[in-house]
Write a structure and sequence with these properties.
InterPro entries: Host_attachment_protein. It holds the Pfam family Host_attach. This is Protein required for attachment to host cells. α1 (about 65-90) packs across α2 (about 100-110). The protein has 4 helices and 7 strands. It has helices at about 65-90, 100-110, 115, 130-140; strands at about 5-10, 15-20, 30-35, 50, 60, 95-100, 120-125. The protein is an alpha/beta fold and about 140 residues long. The chain has a 5-stranded mixed β-sheet. A two-stranded antiparallel ribbon has the order 4-5. Helix content is about 30%, strand content about 30%. It has a single domain, classed as Nucleotidyltransferase, domain 5 (2-Layer Sandwich), CATH 3.30.420.60.
Amino acid sequence: MKPIVTWVVLADARNASVVVNRGPGKGLAVLEDKAWSAKPATGFSSEAGVGHSSAGPGISAVDQGDPQEYADQVFAKEIARDLEVSLARKDFDRLVMVSGPHMLGVMRKALTPPVRGVIVGEISKDLSNVPLDSLQRHLDDIIAT
């Protein structure tokens, strides 16, 4: 019988990686080929954009958005695409998302329905720098390691 493979995505706004559990009693192992680094946020010009009114001579400032938020969204989409491909190849059966609250929300929006369908748990805390043995304690309630 094939063991149930659970991937745990550990992410912050700049880096993400995957650790894997290959069934009860197998513990956690780092997947070396599943690591991502975000490209730095590129700033917009310091001047606000200007929008012209179609109903008269008025103009108004136009918000250019937040470059860091945009970079976070691009990074989350990159991770989501890779997870979707890996799920289609049946590289994993279940998924656990572990990230700080902001990045977890951004990643939720980027994930496709098939990937969302295999999520068995989320931890809204940045544990990306926690050693594997300590990380296992955080995950005990979600997966049987």
